[in-house]
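QA checklist item 7 of 12: single-chain prediction sanity check.
[x] sequence parsed
[x] length recorded as 274
[x] structure emitted
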Amino acid sequence: MDYYIKNGDIFLRKQDLSLSETLDCGQAFRWESLDGGRSYHGFMLDKPLTVSEDDESIVFHNVTEDDFLNIWADYFDLSTDYGELKRRFSEDATLKIACEFAGGIRLLRQDKWEALCSFIISQNNNIPRIKGIISRLCESFGDKTGAGFTFPPAKRLAELECCDLSPLRAGFRARYIIDAAKKINSGEIKLEDAAILPLDEARKELMKICGVGVKVADCAMLYGMHRLEFFPVDVWIRRVLERYYPNGLPECIKGFEGIAQQYLFHYVRNTDGF
């Protein structure tokens, strides 16, 4: 990891990381573009970050070296060699095209509860509306800081009823959010345990939550628990599977299915190539 510190900012040599491709590809919903995709502001738990990029560097603004190494390097998965992964994936012709289209995508290591709650909200929804609901959730029940609002913990939401979430305009999803918060707060579902269960058992554990089906469970496992063997399937990915992988996924992505999914999803959603 090649970086240096200057005037309180940390400059990371730009390699296999694009902010717009990573933060706007549908895996996280609390990053806001400040200037058309060159700078973003967001949170990891209660830690705010403003981050920008130029042709050579990713710049982490007003960040201590300790926070960079112990929080943000992990969040942006900087220890993983995405160049090598793209080389492997490119053994498959379809994935080669997808990797070349958006080679700066990285899989974020998000908070378990935030990812689960976010993908419950994502059901039958579009990205702008998902972001709006999550923003209102944070403003209504998170902690206010000088940099914005934090994501509310399950314990806080577990004390509420569906009617309390009416300002969110979340519709039927309000009941699912409350059910998830109550089951996690009571210990009926332990996200730390789910994170290490075998694939089918982990999926079934999360599907105990009202409204959580296979896709939401798989998204929560991939984006919130970094379980790379999970490969969420929505309408976009289903088209890819039907057309290019009717006999199963290629061997070259084994063990990293979730990262390969990100390249495929972003490509098919932004082009007519499939």
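[x] summary fact logged: The first helix runs from residue 19 to 23.
[ ] second reviewer sign-off
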